[in-house]
Amino acid sequence: MQRIRRNATYYTDHSKLNHWCMPCFSLLKDDDPIVLDDGCEISKKDLQKLKNDALPEEAWVQCDDCHNWVHQICALFNGRKNKTTAAYSCPKCFIKKRARKSIPSNESPLVPVKASKDLRHCNMSEAIEKGLLSTLEKAYKDTAKRRGCALDDIDKAQGLSVRVVSDMEKNHVVRDEMYSRYKDKGYPSEFPVRTKCVLLFQTIHGVDVLIFGMYVYEYSHSCPAPNRRRVYISYLDSVHYFHPRCYRTIAYQSILVEYLRFVKERGFHTAHIWSCPPSKGDDYIFYCHPAQQLTPRDDMLCAWYHDMLDKAKSEGIVLETRTLYDEYFKNDGLDAAAGPANDPTCLPYFEGDYVPGEIENIINELNSEEEAKRKEREAATSLGSRKIGNKLGTRSNPGTLVNQGRDKVMLRLGLALGNMKQNFIVAHLRSRTFASAVERGEDVSDYTLDDEEEQIMIGRKDSIIPKAGEHAGDAIKSDGLDGSAREELQESSSFASKGDDLSSTKKSSKSATGHYCKEKSFVTRSKAKPDSSALKAGETKSTVARHSTLLKTLKPRLIGTTMDEDAPQESDCFDSRQQFLNYCQTNHYQFDELRRAKHTTMMVLFHLHNPSAPKFVQQCGACYREITHGIRYHCNHCSNFDLCQDCYEPVTTGLWAQRDARFAHDKSHRFSQIDMEATSDTQKSREERAKSIKVHLELLAHAATCKGLPGCTSNNCQRMKKLFEHIRICKITFKRGCKICVRLLALLSMHAKQCTERGSCSIPFCDRIRERNRRLSQQQQRMDDRRRQAQNKLYRAGNSSSEKKP
């Protein structure tokens, strides 16, 4: 998949939704049917030849007062609310009427537009927003101090709001080659995951603008190893409209730091990041970035992430940062948390990550090589058999003594990662003792914060122990300690601020009873005993003893179970990065200009506040305008062809086809009238519909496997079986408007979206619908593969050029 260049020739279908460039069109076979995403089939001869030279014109709206025309984007006009009887006043006329106070009394009062701050808050968004504002407040004070001016004179970022707009539970299915090769080792076929989308809005000129987005994947304590209690920061994207610009990096990095703080408190022990800028022509989250906004180089983006993690270290959130290569491939994988990493089953397997795609590629290469070797052996055998030795390990009979070390896939993956290991970042949020117990599947419900983590927590900015250079009396406030404990705390404050980097902890011992903390004293859960031989210079036994006593005084806290208290919330626009990108591309919602970003954000907020509103509005097949009001004429024979009121008659009568063949349409086709101004569902009706859908999905699964009479006497079961039979023999079908087929296929599509059967599903049409959904999901996989291939090309080319140098 690639962009069609300007002024290049291409081919498209009748609905103008699928396009082929000249090279791809030449690869199509004349006799083979072309299956589109909507399931319909067309032939190569049905494709239309066009040239990519059209200049898309922005939609206009006419003012009912001055009768002037203005761009809908410039006027922030919401076409989804446009009705035939609606009156519109342009901003200039409305201001004049407000000044003259000549607004008619019978005119309905203005209803304030719901903004980003009106979206529902959750625990995660509140924590991130609170931390973001606190970090910016500290930055304002530092700027005022550096400039020597008052805090009120500093230009501040106004109107910031953080919201989680999608919080969805799903199953990440393991790819085919990986599962088929390692399923006998007990490797799971899927990983339950909770995917979330975090957005940052800022009010600019009184209008909300979406300026930052982040997609994360959270694998909870109930997820199988090796993903258990890990988080993956999948995608970040932004547009450079943040104001003031000097705080932009601080704000974006603060969002990530506060997210890591939040998931650490919930009990996750490791965070993973793949530092990879988008390939040329690709967008991650926001469609069409500003032309003057540059894409960061690979090394710049990697440095940006490490700078963010250094800030997290200084606040005690991150204990240590390593690379994926050092974690699982260095020293033959002996440093892995769960033991020696001999094969890919020990590697974290995240959706959209580099590792799953590269493993599929490596396994395909190995299969091809093994197939070639098998054919060579068969050819050699046909020429003459050779006697095989009796002793194992010889050339004639290698047996099981060859390649007893690491897996071939692991070896090749290590070679691929070795050239770019700095791009795969692993951030330790909890001690490796805890992580090892999690990887081994032990019960960690009674684990408390490790002592090394307690000491780092004491050094945090909001801790009761002051940082270096801060007076102890200023930090010890409302700590909840008694007088003696407070005195001990004040005496030991110098011990905690001697300049040691408490965030750079030593590697923990993998003992089952304890581990070595930063001060090198062996600590168990029940008793702490200082080791005099391990004391640093200038430290006494009494100092370590007082510090250990202080840690005992603090109330121990259990590590969380990763249970998310926030209720899941689904959004058709933001359930995945690709869905939001397709939503913006289809509706021409762009971020390349500030005025467009304002309009796009307005439409995004409209859909978030009105989930029942249609996300995609049909376009007229003749004039290509969105049909938002009046009557829409839908062709009962074509899969996706509609006409507006103005174009219906001249197109169906063939009047316009006499001037241009593009307007030709089969006169035998019949159209259905659809009222675009029908009343939308209320909240109560949506809830009732959701209940009904759940009941029908259960009935669907029952009827597909039920043997019927006499074992089952349910009338609903028999009715559902009759519907199955109807959809098989119906001659009208859903394409021509059979209402029974349309409703049943909608129900089957809902089931197929949730179906996790790896083989054939017993429910009718589920396999075909899943195949269609698979083609749609391949868009995401193709993009992941493109950025993986681009990074491979970058580093392998650099490695080969360095080897050629003398």
Can you describe what's shown?
The protein has 806 residues and is α+β, with helices and mostly antiparallel strands. It is 38% helix and 13% strand. The protein is built from 22 helices and 19 strands. A seven-stranded mixed beta sheet has the order 8-9-10-11-12-14-13, sandwiched between helices. The protein has a three-stranded antiparallel beta sheet with strand order 2-1-5. A three-stranded antiparallel beta sheet has the order 18-17-19. Helix 19 (683-705) crosses helix 20. It is globular, with a radius of gyration of 32 Å. The two termini are 40 Å apart.
Q: Which features would summarize this protein structure in a list?
A:
806 residues; alpha+beta; 7-stranded mixed β-sheet; 3-stranded antiparallel β-sheet; 22 helices; 13% strand; disordered C terminus
